[in-house]
Design a protein that fits this description.
Blueprint (H helix, E strand, L loop, with lengths): L5 E4 L6 E4 L3 E7 L6 E6 L5 E5 L5 E2 L2 E7 L7 E6 L2 E3 L7 E2 L15 E3 L22 E4 L1 H5 L12 H6 L1 H7 L3 E4 L3 E2 L32 H10 L10 E5 L9 H14 L3 E8 L5 H15 L3 E6 L4 H6 L7 E4 L7 H4 L7 E4 L3 H9 L6 H9 L6 E4 L9 H4 L35 H20 L3 E5 L30 H19 L22 E4 L14 E6 L12 E6 L5 E4 L7 E8 L11 H7 L5 E4 L3 E12 L5 E3 L16
Length: about 650
């Protein structure tokens, strides 16, 4: 091992490891009065210790610089007396490269000193406005690990790159990655059975197995259980090496971000911080990923989130920051008039809209509030399924959790999910049940994508992927937890409808406004920006047992060029009902463009036009448990006296026939 290096000491002002051409500077925070320092390891495991000295100390920070040829070829750790500590600021960690390594002992880890050059090719943050954003959540490994994914590098960052054509054809604007910083997925402790502390605000239980009740089973579980989600303390500065194929994780992750950016897709990373993590450390972590890896946003869960520090940090003013909640007292601080970047979940949207869609009473007014919610101070995210809980397909197929495979006697996971199995628990071949499930999935997708705010879907929900009723797949590194890229008539229909909704939303600004609609005619154009209708136009029924409503979005309130207007007929009752259509101007007619009761290809293009030509009384029939969408279209008189349809202000666009996955 080399011994001719030059050792010097400096008083650091920040923590971390900073390699340069022929030297490495260490700045470590070690709260101790014992001997401490740096250990370097060569490729053969030989080590050499370099103690910190008082002349290189500032407060609790210790500074040491090693200069000499080849210093970057070594790995390192810190030591305090006889204790070995892996640097929490390490930018690459070695020892966890193999996913799910067998064993009952904790794996040894080392920081890496290698310095890599990377060509970003003029990459820059995309800064997609929240009003134009569509989020797509995924787990890096589960997204492409199933053989049906059709990718070469399954379960890796490279696998995501292979799926970019599919993501682009789907129409999403950002991928939200579950924790993909370095952590040990093998849930092993030598004395106490591990317990995962999960994000604040989630409705599922921590992972526990009672060793006293089943010691043999618990011992076996320790050997084989994997934490596939990553909600535990990790090495937050380093990309996860098990998600890479051959390339160094730093290069692999940067390449993925660069290629996604080239295709107009932002990258949002999820971080989980347990209670012991300091707020300033959280800030350092997020700034590191924004500056070093060009990510566009973060989704933060855990404890003691430093809202004010994040809001006041100049580096993060254009970075999307998504938390499950935002404290009201911090609204004046987090409000960014130039680029609205703070985001929260839309209250209890998931559970309340699930209840509304399955026909529970007393929820119509709440559902309309969620539909319109779009605060001035921050963005809101709307979703009905995420990594925790049932998939969208399982929401209409299961009423009870089926988590037996997790090895916890079905005690883990949420017991109350507000779901409905449409008459049969689990798989069925009964056509009437499957038709109803398809309609309910389309209803759910319609409500999410036609709501103001930011729509979010979790990977696989766009083509009805299932986890067989498991609503807590944290440890399922198998076909249960992986996305199954099945290709059948049911999945193709759901995918085509999802693509239609995304395309419709992106092409019509009135469906994704920057600010909240006021239910007022603020422009004096004769129609409010959003209005509600019942059996009679302008007279909605918000009663406790009401389950139907007509919603009009007036296109004259769209920014810039006037947009088409939309009428959304929503009926969650198990019987059909009539709803009134408000009248349009003399040269406009309502045209039905979608109906969740019908297949994507089943609606004749001129069905509603012909009925209007015949003098219909402006009443539509909303099928039971369905959502229909009507769009205003302008007409002009032809020389023969007939009315000819003109294109709306923004065309709907051709249907995307792509089936590529």
């Amino acid at each position: 091992m080399k011994t001719d290096w030059k050792i010097s000491y400096f008083r650091p002002d920040r923590q971390g490891v900073y390699p340069s051409k022929d030297s490495v500077s260490f700045a470590a925070c070690l709260l101790t009065d014992k001997e401490c320092g740096v250990i370097l390891y060569d490729s053969r495991g030989r080590q050499r210790r370099f103690p910190f000295k008082e002349e290189g100390k500032r407060g609790a920070l210790h500074g040491l610089r090693i200069e000499g040829e080849g210093v970057h070829n070594y790995t390192y750790n810190y030591y305090v007396d006889d204790q070995i500590i892996t640097d929490t600021y390490a930018r690459e960690v070695r020892g966890l490269e193999k996913w799910g390594a067998k064993g009952t002992r904790k794996r040894t880890t080392y920081g890496v000193l290698a310095c890599y050059d990377f060509d970003w090719q003029e990459d820059a943050p995309l800064m997609t406005p929240l009003a134009d954003s569509i989020f797509y959540g995924l787990n890096v490994r589960a997204f492409t690990m199933h053989k049906s994914s059709g990718v070469k590098e399954r379960g890796t960052f490279e696998g995501i790159i292979e799926k970019i054509p599919y993501l682009k054809s789907l129409g999403i604007t950002a991928v939200e990655l579950m924790p993909c910083y370095e952590y040990d997925e093998c849930m092993v402790q030598e004395t106490n059975y591990p317990q995962i502390s999960l994000p604040k605000g989630t409705d599922y239980l921590p992972v526990r197995i009672i060793k006293e009740a089943a010691p043999d089973f618990a011992a076996e579980a320790e050997k084989r259980k994997l934490n596939c989600w990553g909600f535990e303390k990790g090495f937050y500065f380093a990309p996860k090496s098990a998600y890479c194929k051959e390339k160094p994780p730093v290069i692999s992750f940067k390449t993925m971000v660069r290629e996604l950016h080239k295709n107009g897709i932002e990258v949002i990373m999820q971080f989980y911080f347990p209670p012991e993590i300091r707020q300033l450390y959280m800030l350092d972590v997020i700034k590191h990923w924004v500056m070093e890896y060009h990510i566009d946003g973060v989704r933060i869960s855990g404890f003691h989130i430093p809202f004010r520090l994040l809001a006041e940090e100049p580096v993060l003013r254009n970075t999307k920051i998504w938390c499950s909640y935002l404290p009201n007292e911090d609204f004046p601080v987090i409000s960014n008039p130039i680029f609205k970047n703070f985001i929260s979940d839309n209250g209890n949207y998931r559970n309340d809209i699930r209840r509304f869609l399955k026909g529970d009473e007393g929820l119509l007014s709440q559902a309309l509030g969620y539909h319109r919610c779009n605060p001035k101070e921050h963005g809101v995210v709307n979703y009905l399924a995420d990594y925790d809980g049932f998939t969208l397909y399982d929401c209409v197929s299961y009423e009870r959790k089926h988590n037996e495979a997790n090895g916890e006697d079905n005690r883990d996971g949420a017991d109350v999910n507000f779901t409905w199995n449409c008459g049969v628990e689990g798989d069925t071949r009964k056509k009437s049940i499957m038709d109803l499930r398809m309609k309910q999935i389309k209803n759910a997708l319609s409500f999410v994508f036609l709501s103001q705010g930011i729509p979010f879907i979790y990977s696989g929900d766009e083509f009805a992927s299932s986890r067989k009723g498991n609503n807590n797949c944290y440890c399922q590194d198998n076909e249960t937890g992986w996305v199954n890229w099945k290709d059948n008539q049911f999945s193709r229909e759901i995918l085509a409808y999802t693509q239609f909704l995304i395309r419709l939303r992106k092409e019509h600004p009135i469906l994704h406004m920057k600010d909240e609609l006021l239910v007022m005619d603020s422009k004096g154009c004769g129609c409010p920006d959003i209005s509600y209708h019942g059996i009679e136009a302008w007279r909605p029924d918000f009663g406790h047992i009401s389950r139907m409503i007509g919603i009009v979005l007036c296109g004259q309130y769209a920014p810039g060029e006037e947009d088409a207007s939309f009428y959304i007929a929503c009926n969650m009752h198990w019987e059909s009902h009539k709803l009134a259509l408000p009248k349009l101007s003399r040269d406009e007619k309502w045209v039905k463009i979608s109906d969740t009761s019908l297949s994507v290809d089943a609606l004749p293009q001129n069905e509603w036009e012909n009925r209007q030509e015949e003098g219909d009384d402006h009443v539509v029939t909303a099928d039971c448990r369905s959502i229909s969408v009507y769009m205003s279209k302008k007409y002009k008189e032809t020389k023969s006296g007939k009315k000819e349809r003109r294109s709306p202000a923004r065309s709907q666009g051709k249907k995307d026939k792509s089936k590529e996955r």
